[in-house]
Amino acid sequence: MNRKQKSMPLKGKSVVVTAGPTRERIDPVRYVSNFSTGKMGFAMARAAADLGAEVTLIAGPVTLETPAGVTRVDVESAADMLREVETRFASTDILIKTAAVADYKPKLQADQKIKKQDGDTVLEMERTTDILAHMGSIKSNQVVIGFAAETNDVEAYAEKKRVKKNADYIIANDVMQQGVGFGTDTNKVTVFSKSGKSDFPFLPKQQLALELLQFVAEQEGWHS
Ligand code: CTP
Ligand code: CA
Predict the structure, then answer these.
(1) Predicted ipTM?
(2) How many angstroms separate the Cα of 106 from the Cα of each of 60, 71, 128, 186?
(3) Closest-lying ligand 1 atom to the alpha carbon of residue 103
């Protein structure tokens, strides 16, 4: 290969990345969410585009700029995100679920602001659909990549998620480590796949995203 020529192992691949948190409405002025800022997901989208993929980025509410050459679809709730992922799944080669999807949503969404009352201590919640697990259960040729945010026992929990959700790769981070996880510009991950685990160095998220996708391309035997 010409040394100046950029390696494009994802050329011709259609990639869907989800990023950021989701918001689950309680009423018109309140919601349930988490501290995700979308940085890792946006880095994954940009890296996939840099490696030649056609990229759709399904983003929860974040304040980041859309990476060049990436098609962005904004969503609010887990249900919205599921719908956008499902619509595209048949024509997707690689699904990357970086989003921190809310696990619970209020059982009822009030049309008007709920007024506080004495003794009202409980908000009834129900589980959202696990998008990654759902796509893993219906996938055919798609490569499905999930993330795992853990505060302890990273290895055991991440491997359990990979198997349970039928994901090809789980990228796990220990969010209690300094410089790792929500809001940071750096990350340190371990990747779990059916061929074992691979540790990645502590890196800026953008560089890490590129190395992660190059790793997946190598594992899958994709060359350019
Ligand atoms: N995920 C998803 N839909 C959900 C919840 C999680 O698609 N409703 C995906 C995330 O996008 C991520 C992976 O599942 O790729 C793991 O998310 P994580 O929150 O670490 O794990 P959970 O399975 O939700 O378990 P828990 O939060 O209890 O650790
Ligand atoms: Ca979760």
Answers:
(1) 0.99
(2) 18, 30, 9, 33
(3) 8
